[in-house]
């Protein structure tokens, strides 16, 4: 019995002395098709765009963030993160000081030459560029893989995929409504059919009035809008700008949407940031468009209405100081 105990103790000591097996490296393909490889899950991450910060929280890895850029304001915890500059004017010194083991950059937003500059730091760089609805859950899934939170990110990605599929099944085949989405007021700006917001409109059974425009976010004149005369105008505005933009459209009763009371307002952060919140924005927009369909047989009202039931009614819009961010988000 004593001998057996001694042998067992010896075996336990021998096993304890063995070197621990090294975890397999993590390899994830980014938006540019580059393979980003980490020896271990990222523990200190710098994110160079507000949507990346938000998606990292959705992936269950917000606590890994050690640096972010201006306007990284959601969720609330993101507001306390150290700033390394703005999306198009970040500080290399601050990034280095944060001692990250991974940098998450915005492909089209961080400016030309940003990737080459960051790669010189000899820190792994992952490029994020969600342009399609399907890219949002996919991006969250990949961020979770990089941070070692795959279980949480997979659950969130599947929730979004189910949500988008449910909306598509419920609304996509409904009677179509032509929709003009207003990105900006001066100059008047909208989106073409390649934009993520246009996909949301289609998901809801709508048709983007300017889907055929050559650029992603074309500037248009009032004459072209009058010529297309959409069934619905959707204003992408929040805060003080919301009421001002809605009031502006009262001056054009010749437009079918204005005459029919079909001028809606949505919070821009819900649809103009490619994050998990797009699902909530899509649900609200789909519900409002369906409400319009149901009331088409009733007498048109001259009163404008908006997504008044939305908890985001008073959420701040990106103000003039962020015009550069707006431009980049709506560039090719």
Automatic annotation (TrEMBL):
InterPro entries tied to this protein: ABC_Transporter_SBP (IPR050902), ABC_transptr_periplasmic_BD (IPR002491), Vit_B12_bind_prot (IPR054828)
This protein's name: Cobalamin-binding protein
Fe/B12 periplasmic-binding domain mapped to chain residues: 44-293
Matches recorded under PANTHER family: MOLYBDATE-BINDING PROTEIN MOLA (PTHR30535:SF34), VITAMIN B12-BINDING PROTEIN (PTHR30535)
Signal peptide: 1-23
Taxonomic placement: Bacteria, Pseudomonadati, Pseudomonadota, Gammaproteobacteria, Cellvibrionales
Keyword entries, A-Z: Signal
Pfam families assigned: Peripla_BP_2
Domain of life: Bacteria
The organism of origin for this protein: Kineobactrum salinum
GO terms under biological process: cellular response to iron ion
């Amino acid at each position: 019995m004593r001998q057996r105990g001694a042998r067992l103790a010896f075996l336990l000591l021998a096993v304890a002395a063995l070197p621990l097996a090294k975890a397999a490296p993590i390899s994830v393909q980014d938006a540019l098709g580059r393979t980003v490889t980490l020896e271990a899950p990222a523990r200190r991450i710098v994110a160079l765009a507000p949507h990346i910060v938000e998606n990292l929280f959705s992936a269950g890895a917000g606590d890994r963030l050690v640096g972010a850029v201006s306007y990284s304001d959601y969720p609330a915890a993101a507001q306390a993160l150290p700033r390394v500059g703005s999306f198009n004017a970040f500080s290399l010194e601050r990034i280095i000081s944060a001692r990250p083991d991974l940098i998450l950059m915005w492909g089209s937003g961080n400016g030309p030459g940003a990737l080459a500059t960051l790669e010189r730091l000899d820190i792994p760089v992952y490029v994020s560029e969600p342009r399609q609805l399907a890219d949002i859950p996919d991006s969250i899934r990949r961020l979770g893989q990089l941070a070692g939170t795959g279980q949480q990110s997979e659950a969130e990605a599947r929730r979004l995929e189910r949500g988008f599929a449910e909306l598509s099944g419920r609304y996509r085949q409904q009677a179509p409504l032509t929709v003009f989405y207003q990105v900006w007021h001066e100059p008047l700006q909208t989106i073409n059919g390649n934009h993520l917001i246009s996909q949301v409109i289609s998901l809801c059974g709508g048709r983007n009035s300017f889907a055929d425009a050559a650029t992603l976010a074309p500037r248009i004149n009032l004459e072209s809008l009058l010529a297309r005369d959409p069934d619905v105008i959707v204003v992408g505005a929040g805060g003080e700008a919301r009421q001002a933009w809605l009031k502006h459209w009262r001056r054009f009763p010749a437009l079918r949407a204005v005459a029919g009371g079909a001028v809606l307002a949505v919070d821009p952060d819900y649809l103009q940031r490619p994050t998990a919140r797009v699902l909530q924005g899509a649900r609200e927009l789909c519900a409002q468009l369906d409400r319009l369909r149901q009331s088409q047989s009733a007498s048109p009202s001259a009163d404008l209405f908006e997504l008044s039931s939305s908890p985001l009614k008073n959420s701040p819009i990106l103000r003039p100081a962020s015009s550069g961010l707006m431009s980049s988000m709506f560039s090719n």
